Amino acid sequence: APVRLEDYRPTDYLIDTVSLDVRLHPTATRILAELAIRPNPAGRAGAALELDGDELELVSVALDGGALAPGAYEASPSGLTLHAPPERAFRLSIETRVNPTANTKLMGLYRSSGVYCTQCEAEGFRRITYFLDRPDVMAVYTTRIEAEEAEAPVLLGNGDPVERGALPNGRHYAVWRDPHPKPCYLFALVGGKLGRVGGEIVTRSGRKVELGVYVEPGKESRAGYALDALVRSMRWDEQAFGCEYDLSVFNIVAVSDFNMGAMENKGLNIFNDKYVLASPETATDADYAAIEAIIAHEYFHNWTGNRITCRDWFQLCLKEGLTVFRDQEFSSDERSRPVKRIADVRALRAQQFAEDSGPLAHPVRPSVYREINNFYTATVYEKGAEVIRMLKTLIGPEAFKAGMDLYFHRCDGTAATIEDFLACFAEASGRDLSHFSLWYRQAGTPSVAVRTAYDAEDRTLRLDFAQSTPPTPGQTEKEPVVIPIRLGLVSAQGRGAPLKTADGRTLEDGLFVLDKTADSLTLIEVPADPVPSLLRGFSAPVRLEQELGPAELLTLFRRDEDPFNRWQAAQTYAMRLMVRAVEALRAQQPPEFDQGFAVALGELLAATDDHAFAAQVMALPSEADVARELGREIDPDAVLHARKALRSFVGQTAGDRLAQTYSRLETTGPYSPDAASAGRRSLRNAALDLLTAGDPGRGIPLAQAQFASADNMTDQIGALAILAQHPGPAREEALAAFGEHFAADPLVLDKWFGLQAAIPEAATLDRVRGLMRHPAFSLSNPNRTRALVGTFAMANLSQFHRADGAGYAFLADMVLQLDGSNPQLAARLLGAFRTWRSLEQGRRAQAETQLRRVAAKEGLSPDVSDIVTRSLA
Ligand code: ARG
Ligand code: ZN
Known about the structure:
This protein has 873 residues and is of the alpha+beta class. It has 27 helices and 32 strands. The strands form 9 sheets. The protein has an 8-stranded mixed β-sheet with strand order 6-5-9-3-2-12-15-14, with no helix packed on it. Helix 10 packs across helix 14 (636-653) and helix 26 packs antiparallel against helix 27. Arginine is lined by residues 121-122, 259-264, 297-298, 320, 373, 376. It is an enzyme of class 3 (hydrolase).
């Protein structure tokens, strides 16, 4: 049955302390839980106590040390009920048995490459012991972990270490105590053979904290960057948000089987090793940036998520949207702010806009769910972060800071709601945020249409704005939202003009707030021919429909003081060319392009010293971007060919400039992952990529040479990715060499799997099938599966959406196969169908057939069943 926000009520019982004794064993781990329980004054007196369970085996249960009468309770794998518990505080002792080796769902206690680890968010703790498994039940935890010392020399828990020692028969134990009350989803333990790199930090108020990053033994040399990122995160959070760490130990453990990116367990973050391990030879610049961001994200959760947690899972964005905002700010401060913004907006459009326009659309704070694991989405995370960013834009940085301080002060130690959060900002700013809060409840991406009229005589510029949001599942009627639009005027001659409104004010910070269906703004004393630069910095997560001609776009591209809009102007220009090319191709005409874009690109390459920015300009909108722009009746083959044609045209037109850029940016000296060096490499690789697209005869030998001589993964895989786009022996030789060289390095092989899965050729599906038989491939490892199957389905538009439906059938097979072992992963992959209704009708029919085939399977998991049902609705 679906869970609804409106049905929330507090629990009838509270659990104040939890004492766990976990005896690790590969197939029969025993968990003795002692729970101090009392009636909740806010609950119903005399109610039954209903503890959650999931695939649990009950060994014994006792109340205040005494056995329970058989009729007093009822136990099943999915719950333990005490019919009439005492109407006073009492102690419940529960012993359960679980099999970590057989736990392929990777929720609860499981083993990854022999290491015992846990994942409890959202509802995994109930797979360890019976509990009130919901975030508003907060307790103080003590964990004793016992294991065979040879099997698990390292034993880690939440909080501070209290005690450890040897036991007879080669066993040993460790006790950890976490003094901070927390919900059970933040519980974690780890036991295994692990290598460690350590550090130490003294917090602002003088607390000494020992830092540890634990990895597979032998991989310690790849853990240094994660540790460095952790130290920088801790410093930054003190300075930027006044948040200080609150335990004597902070540990991070990398495991190789993990459903998501990482998990913020109190004092014991557990990571997908992909987001910890890095060396120049095995990780790309993008990997380094992702490690930095995710290390920061999980650490930042210590305040936004752990100290202040969520009342219920509908409030997930309370911690996730805010923490994404915080990690984005961190990366912006550590690297280039404009480049980070461009990258984030690219990702937002690719993931969240796609989600928001299809059958899986939901509000940032959903009001109903069947399976909470399916709501760890781009909407909750990335749009959730955009909403925070808009809040800051609307009330200003000082009021935002005051609101955050108030939130930390008032809500610390509580399980809070979005209303609690917003109340702090309303109070700090003196503003009414009730209209703004609609962003949390209303799904769909708003469109803002703008018309501009310049009156040369009066020297006034009138901007007419109109907003609308398309219907989404369950929400047919939409209301206008509060849209902060940052704007400026750019003239063909040079500097931007000041923004004076008709009533004689200057528009503060260039901010116009559109909060009605339609509104207009008149600017006075506007010099001739201004080009309005709207939605600067992407000030709201909306689609902007602004009629700008090629000359105006080029003016923005060349002169806008807002770097985001310079980049956006180039993207819009390229997008137009591709959309027109798709139309031409579908009418059996050859695509034609004007020189404007390529010429401007050449100018940029000649002049810029912001390499990372230039690389972002050169990366044309993706096939999926073009498909979204088209919106309906999409023919992915036409999109592929239109994009190829433009890349080839630009590569030819700007060929010499690209070649110069490529040779000019050659680096010497040892690899460094810093943003400036990474920027150089990204521009150099982007230049080679376009050069090769325009003239393979010129580019392929360069790519081959780079592939052979590169001393770092960024340049090596960059060259390989270019070679991969051009069929022939050069490609196959390079792929074979790479596969052999990294045969023993699973994380690098993932790049190799992914690269091949993304080749936009008809033979790719067979190649993917072949790679599934590769000795290093395994469907039981989520990283391998996502690299091969996930990349094929999510990052190879033309081949997943093959006209014959074979791509869809393949994915449906994979989903059905995986659903038995890892439903969360299966449901994620099935999300690849989320755009199916916008395809041309032949493909739409093929996709529907496969979705129906999945839906018809008996015994589907709640995870897959939820996605397939919503996809077909
Ligand atoms: N809270 C984690 C993060 O944002 C994500 C964990 C999600 N896990 C899950 N099983 N849905 O980093
Ligand atoms: Zn998070």
